[in-house]
Amino acid sequence: MPVDNIWVFGESQDQRPVMVTLELLTKARDLGGSVSVFYAGAEAEGLADEFGKYGAGKVYMVDPGDTLPGAATAKAMAGVIESEKPDLIMFPSTYTGRDVCGALSVILDHPVISNGGSLKVEGDDVIVGTQIFGGQSIVETAFRCPAPHLALIRPKSFTAEPAESGASPEVVKVDLPDVGAQGQTKVLERHVEKSEGPKLEEAAIVVSGGRGLGAAENYKLVEDLAEVLKGAKGASRAIVDAGWVPYSHQVGQTGKVVKPKVYIALGISGAMQHMVGMKDSGHIIAVNKDAEAPIFGITSLGVVGDVHKVVPALIDALKKR
């Protein structure tokens, strides 16, 4: 049976759709059929036009208020699923996306294919590709269950592109159902880590540092180069675990997945877990004194040298241009 009715679970931040929502909408549009967003939040009317620009024809809105969204949002979705019968629901692999998808899986008694990096439809099969062995191999898994198929997709798996003829979608408000004690859990406070410059996951240029910088104070090389290039600052897990920089800077399997036009790795050897998070960048430049560092296997340009000598010279040259 063809995939004619596709839903995307939508999220927002600062009254804007998060980038992964727009990425999933672009993919859903490419698959054909009707595309809808199921959005949990209070400002759907303001976001609807943005969803529409990327192909959404309808936006279902449920407002969980200050409760944790998982259980109640999933139950609300299940009620609409019963009448609208979507064939495929694509969730972003985010904290909220995983929470809602997991709860919906239990309610519907349907399996989830998680950690997806690709998605395609072949005949009657919906197939999700998942990276294994640090991205060295792809496992493709087809659903063998009734619709709707539930797929959790990693950010940056697809490129967000507006539709050629996006229009304002219909907004359908959905009542928040009672979920008993689960609905009593309240969000008392939200903490957003302060950051400067472009967002790591949206930046066109990313400069990351690793253990090869030698010490926490040497991360300033990353900051200075990123500032000159108007790029975002990233880091390997090693220096995040060491407390040199916050977790929000981490690129890799357990951090953020980035896909900038240019990725510059300073003192990063290239562990599989890191390369999963940046290997699809347009151009990868690495500076490392170890000529055998694995990261040189995926670089567009590799510089074998001491970051403490190469980077200051590079910054000086860029400032003179």
Describe this structure in words.
The chain is of the alpha/beta class and 321 residues long. The protein is built from eight helices and 16 strands. The chain has a nine-stranded mixed beta sheet, with helices on both faces. It is elongated and about 65 Å long.
Please tag this protein with its features.
321 residues; 16 strands; 8 helices; Rossmann fold; five-stranded parallel sheet; alpha/beta
Please specify the SSE layout and strand pairing.
Layout: E1 5-10, E2 12-13, E3 16-17, H1 19-31, E4 34-40, H2 44-53, E5 58-62, H3 70-84, E6 88-92, H4 95-108, E7 112-122, E8 125-132, E9 137-142, E10 149-153, E11 170-173, E12 205-209, H5 220-229, E13 232-235, H6 237-241, E14 262-266, H7 272-275, E15 283-288, E16 301-304, H8 307-320
Parallel strand pairs: 1-4, 1-6, 4-5, 5-11, 6-10, 7-10, 12-13, 12-14, 14-15, 15-16
Antiparallel strand pairs: 2-3, 7-8, 8-9
Helix pairs in contact: 3-4, 5-8
